Amino acid sequence: MVVPKKGENYELRSDLNSEYKDKRADAIKRVIANMTVGKDVSGLFPDVLKNMQTDDLEQKKLVYLYLMNYASTQPELVILAVNTFVKDTADPNPLVRALAIRTMGCLRAEKIIDYLSDPLQKCLRDDDPYVRKTAALAVAKLYDLKPELAVDNGFVEQLKDMVGDSNPMVVANAVAALTDIHDIALSNQASASSASPPGSPTSAEQTSEGIFIIDAHVLNKLLVALNECSEWGRIAILSALARYKAADVEESEHICERVMPQFQHANGSVLLSAVRVVMIHMKNVEREDLIKQLVRKMAPPLVTLVSSAPEIQWVALRNINLLLQKRPDILQNEMRVFFCKYNDPPYVKVEKLEIMVRLAGEKNVDTLLSELKEYASEVDVDFVRKSIKAIGQTAIKIPEATDRCVNVLLELIATRVSYVVQEAIVVMKDIFRKYPRSYEGIIPTLCAALDELDEPEAKASLIWIIGEYAEKIENADDLLGIFLKTFKEESYQVQLQTLTAIVKLFLKKPDESQAIVQKVLQTATKDCDSPDVRDRAYIYWRLLSTDPAAAKSVVLADRPPISLPQTTVPPAILEGLLEEISTLASVYHKPAETFVGKGRMGIDAMRKRETEQEEDLSTTREKALHVVEQGQKSENLLDFDDDPIPSSIAPDFPSSSTTIINPNPTGMAAAPVRNALDDMLDLFSQTSLPPTSTNTHGSQFPNTISNSLSGFGQPLNESTQPQQHQPQSQPQQTSFASSSSASQPPPSTSTQAGTDDLLGLF
């Protein structure tokens, strides 16, 4: 006889149906524990449901929690719990009534929605404010599931009346529910308008009209309830105030004055929400004394946020960064608060550095430079680089402090630490761009560090400095020659800077740099595999050969001085982000539309969307395979497969050096079998060119730079103008397929003309 296996669920089922109360209570706790760790206990749904009717409030809460988790998987059995829910909504205990209506709102099952109307109607008018505030949130959940039911039964209108409730918590929850309903209606309207043809009315449009429109009467109710709510309630009311458009200047001033006390709240989210409301309505304030008062009151709580936990601190710093871009005077005397501590995480240090540069001025620049110099001796290489870059940004921002910044950079270069020296050279390049011809005396110090450079950006910066001040450096050709020796191995960034710097050197010292400029041009045009480097080399070569004066005006043109941008985002986006302070948009410094999808999507919609995407993917794969099969049956111009050709056509693959055998036994003139690959290979199968290249007009490149530049002396439009080539009048043209038989057709006139132009360019 086989003994049936008794697993954990079997034991739990036995205990749930036990006649002992304590045993059933213990079984429910074990079921919830298994559900919490991810075990599937949905099979116990009927047994747990039997334990709903109990006077033990703790047990009832656990059962309701189980129902909320597994109601979607057991929609047929959830209907059995309706009677208990309705009975609990009439319980003398307000906690039980609120628990029942909250659970019914969270059960996202279609069959139970219709039974929710009567209990919800009763709870919205309940005498206890705790029940009313719970029922207010249940209306928002009902509207999300079935908007027409919430509107037809008058639940939305009741929520609007509850904004004037005597209890501030009820007001806060009513505002939160109305805000959610408003957002849902707008989302439904957007999705319906995109799905329906233009001009046709939709139910979503009718639903979204008149939902939570804040007027002066509602505004006063919100301002009265603001100071008496909990943290969550204050955030909901402040979010509604941020959406309100003030009618005039006096109303904006009134809102700012009433919201200002929220700056003293201990909760960071309440503080940032209050700052958001004040920043929005401050734009309409005209009284200078009120603006100064608001700015002065805003600084201390923001400073307090900086001393919070690292995660909260980072969020606060990101929001402070936005505020400083709009109003730099908010924290102008609080730079020391943002000094980095030894135990700050790297992401906090980076934000503090950026804020310190924004707060830098003539009064505190010495303190800032001494602090940044200390940061440059840290062990974190990335933080050291950013600190040195901050010194350069300070020099660009404050012209009066540039000398002190340069002296600090020279002290850092004297340390001979590789990454410090290289980052300092990169920063000095920016300083030269901002203040040209001002610090030429430190160029020998920078050139002395040439052997320590191994990063592309540092090499490119030093090469730019040498090329820009080539007339002041006696051995500029020798220094650039060092980079020319390793030209092929350098990165593209270094190659481009080396090429430009040597051309600058030639334009400034033509007699001393003919050999080096010829070498770099030949190397860049022949041996470099970067099209950008080759194109720039050809442009310089043509400029130098046709019009040296034009080359000087292009290569040695005065560049506009660089400046430190006042904002990291465009002004229009900055205004939008300031209206989203205390949200993810203000943390990412991006509009919400860039990282939040449109519309509301629940778990069922997500699963449906994944299924549709999988079906679309399989359909696309089948179509792609069908196209490939069809392509294999037709002629493929880029077919590189090694499939054997039947012997009736050719004994082997035809190439540029073989002759196609004509299999026609009758001797009739039949067109030989050719494909596009053979024609392409024929174009490049001519005999090797002589060592000295010839341009379109027949001139060669001698060894001296003056004669070598004359090869490109003709105008560009003449050398590239298409000509009517005739094969009969070109005996000097090398045969494209010297070993091909006479039966092979010659290249077409257009193909040969294009090839002549292509080869003539070189």
TrEMBL record:
<dbReference type="InterPro" id="IPR016342">
    <property type="entry name" value="AP_complex_bsu_1_2_4"/>
</dbReference>
<keyword id="KW-0653">Protein transport</keyword>
<feature type="domain" description="Clathrin/coatomer adaptor adaptin-like N-terminal">
    <location>
        <begin position="6"/>
        <end position="547"/>
    </location>
</feature>
<feature type="region of interest" description="Disordered">
    <location>
        <begin position="637"/>
        <end position="663"/>
    </location>
</feature>
<feature type="compositionally biased region" description="Low complexity">
    <location>
        <begin position="719"/>
        <end position="753"/>
    </location>
</feature>
<dbReference type="GO" id="GO:0006886">
    <property type="term" value="P:intracellular protein transport"/>
</dbReference>
<keyword id="KW-0472">Membrane</keyword>
<dbReference type="GO" id="GO:0030117">
    <property type="term" value="C:membrane coat"/>
</dbReference>
<dbReference type="GO" id="GO:0016192">
    <property type="term" value="P:vesicle-mediated transport"/>
</dbReference>
<dbReference type="GO" id="GO:0012505">
    <property type="term" value="C:endomembrane system"/>
</dbReference>
<keyword id="KW-0813">Transport</keyword>
<protein>
    <recommendedName>
        <fullName>AP complex subunit beta</fullName>
    </recommendedName>
</protein>
<dbReference type="InterPro" id="IPR016024">
    <property type="entry name" value="ARM-type_fold"/>
</dbReference>
<dbReference type="InterPro" id="IPR026739">
    <property type="entry name" value="AP_beta"/>
</dbReference>
<feature type="compositionally biased region" description="Low complexity">
    <location>
        <begin position="645"/>
        <end position="657"/>
    </location>
</feature>
<dbReference type="InterPro" id="IPR002553">
    <property type="entry name" value="Clathrin/coatomer_adapt-like_N"/>
</dbReference>
<comment type="similarity">
    <text>Belongs to the adaptor complexes large subunit family.</text>
</comment>
<feature type="region of interest" description="Disordered">
    <location>
        <begin position="685"/>
        <end position="762"/>
    </location>
</feature>
<comment type="function">
    <text>Adaptins are components of the adaptor complexes which link clathrin to receptors in coated vesicles. Clathrin-associated protein complexes are believed to interact with the cytoplasmic tails of membrane proteins, leading to their selection and concentration.</text>
</comment>
<dbReference type="Pfam" id="PF01602">
    <property type="entry name" value="Adaptin_N"/>
</dbReference>
<dbReference type="GO" id="GO:0030276">
    <property type="term" value="F:clathrin binding"/>
</dbReference>
<feature type="compositionally biased region" description="Polar residues">
    <location>
        <begin position="685"/>
        <end position="711"/>
    </location>
</feature>
<dbReference type="InterPro" id="IPR011989">
    <property type="entry name" value="ARM-like"/>
</dbReference>
